[in-house]
Specification:
By secondary structure, the chain is an alpha/beta fold. It has helices at about 5-15, 20-25, 30-45, 60-85, 100-115, 130-140, 205-215, 230-240, 250-255, 285-300; strands spanning about 50, 55-60, 95-100, 120-125, 145-150, 165-180, 190, 200, 225, 245-250, 260-265, 270-275. The strands form three sheets. Strands 3, 4, 5, 6, 7, 10, 11 and 12 form an eight-stranded mixed β-sheet that branches. The mean pLDDT is about 90.
């Protein structure tokens, strides 16, 4: 019989790439991890891991079990949280994963409101851009993922998050960022094609991909000199006169854009910001309350 504790060990070994790494993550000894894995392989009747040098990799059977393990463990965590909340045994817990500008704008207000109404609820936060944040949610490493997507980027909006519960938050526009003294610094509005010869500073992989698509639709391929997931770094590079960028308006508002000027970009570039969770987790009181507070913060 497959036990949840064995699935947790398998997930840790695959994630860490070794028994010793899994032991550190789980806070136990390497022999204990090895024993758990042997028990799991005996239960399923086939090897789940193969050693390649010092690395432990999943076999086809191990990979198949991992795909199911994520949903099983997430569902079990949701059940434990819901039962505990109903029984009043302990306070709720919410694990958030958010992209940086969401962490600096939406999350502080939402968490403060949640703690005000539910002081016993524990909230943790890690940062990751989509699609990594969504992968963490599906793997049971987070309860809510703040994510975003752009229209027309090759992802089907009906299938990309079809297995998840989606709470729409807001749609925002991207603004252009140019150095002070730039020829478009006082323009107020600039066509994206007018920036064709400029060096560009781009953001996360999803943002970079969208930037390339928008620019190619305008007839040019952007020359990206710098790429960074750190919004203050983007602003700093633009402020130093090293290029131009387009950023979400909340990202610009969350830092001090010294040495830069914002301009409206046409055609307008927009993105959809949402809170995602697993359908089972949506029924957990603490998770439901956090989703409500995020929605309220997005309207503030």
């Amino acid at each position: 019989m497959i036990e949840a504790r064995h699935l947790r060990v398998l997930r840790a070994v695959v994630r860490a790439g070794s028994y010793s790494g899994a032991a550190r993550e789980l806070g136990c000894t390497q022999p204990a991890v090895s024993q758990q894995m042997k028990a799991l392989e005996q239960s399923v009747g086939t090897p789940l891991l193969v050693r390649i040098g010092r690395e432990a990799r999943p076999t086809d059977a191990g990979a198949a079990l991992m795909r199911h393990a994520a949903g099983v463990l997430a569902g079990l965590a949701a059940a434990e949280e819901e039962v505990a909340a109903i029984a009043g045994l302990r306070a709720g817990r919410v694990r958030l994963v958010s992209f940086p500008s969401g962490s600096s704008t939406l999350v502080p207000t939402a968490v403060a409101r949640l703690r005000s109404g539910h002081p016993g609820t524990r909230v943790s936060l890690v940062e990751a851009e989509p699609p990594r944040s969504v992968e963490m949610l599906r793997a049971g490493e987070a309860d809510i993922a703040l994510a975003f997507r752009y229209p027309g980027t090759g992802t089907d909006p009906d299938t990309e998050w079809s297995d998840l519960a989606i709470r729409p938050l807001f749609t925002d526009s991207l603004v252009g960022l140019v150095p002070e003294g730039h020829r478009f610094a006082d323009a107020g509005e600039v066509g994206i094609a007018e920036l064709a010869e400029e060096p560009w500073i781009a953001g996360c992989p999803r943002c970079r991909g969208h930037l390339v698509e928008v620019c190619e639709a305008a007839g040019f391929t952007p020359r990206i000199d710098f790429a960074t997931d750190d919004y203050p770094a983007v602003v700093g590079l633009v402020g130093a006169g090293l290029g131009v960028a387009v950023l979400p308006a909340p990202a610009v508002e969350s830092v001090r854009p010294r040495g830069t000027c914002t301009v409206r970009v046409v055609p307008e570039v927009r993105r959809e910001v949402v809170a995602l969770t697993l359908p089972d987790l949506e029924r957990v009181p603490a998770v439901a309350a956090m989703l409500d507070r995020l929605a309220e913060a997005s309207e503030a």
